[in-house]
Amino acid sequence: MPDPSAPSPTPTSPQSPSLTERRKAATQQEISLAAARLFAEHGAEGTTAEDIARTSGVSLRTFYRYFRTKEDAVAPLLAEGSRQWIELLAATAPGTPPLTALLDSARASLTPAPGRAAESLAWTRGLLRAMPDDPALRDVWHRVHHDAEAALRPVLAGLTGLAAEGLEARLLAAAANTAMRVAVESWAAADTPPTAAADLADTTFRRLAGPLLPPA
Question: Would the pLDDT of 12 be above 50?
């Protein structure tokens, strides 16, 4: 039997990544950025794993240590956008209506900012335009969104009070993820400025939720 007089164990906080882990993550990100640039500029057929390795300053052996194929190399960059959106959604103030939370977080994550955030939107557009010619690149895009959908479930469950693995939460996560994906794909296919991506996300969420909204 446990001793009731014994002090409670001190909660342990998650350990920070080690220097080695941070270096690996940085290398992976640099390779991913190089791959995105090359795919956007030269397309899938015009880019090789050797090109990506050379541009990112690593050996081909190092490239294959991190990624199985040239298309896999862009997964971290594509996943970063979803991660930022979900983190913003998870940070929503308690009591915020779910639709408002979705609209605000989507707009914030797709609004261009100085530096890499703005560049990432341009690279994403180039990648999405290259996808019709490369089924493997499309597979990466859909795999990233499959993972994002799973990550959305507990966040949306917390906002709505639904069971994270229940049917309603799964449907909601699938719908929200699809709305975001369609918005980004529609933006990438058009010759509109980066700011239009956030506007399209707003439109897709509102049209999806239209039957659920109260009358104006």
Answer: no
User: Would you call 163 helix, strand, or coil by DSSP?
Assistant: coil
Q: What is the pLDDT of residue 118?
A: 65
Report how far residue 9's alpha carbon sits from residue 66's, in angstroms, rounded to the nearest whole number: 38
The C-alpha atoms of residue 167 and residue 196 are separated, in whole angstroms, by 33
CA distances from 89 to 22, 82, 101 (A): 25, 11, 6
pTM for the model stands at 0.80
Q: What's the structural domain count of the chain?
A: 1
Say how far apart CA 137 and CA 73 lie, in whole Å. 10
Sign of CA dihedral 118, 18, 79, 90: negative
CB within 8 A of 174, min separation 6: which ones? 149
CB 77 within 8 A of CB 146: no
Contact indicator for 36, 80 with CB cutoff of 8 Å: no
Rg of the chain over Cα atoms, rounded to whole angstroms, equals: 20
| Domain containing residue 142: CATH number | 1.10.357.10
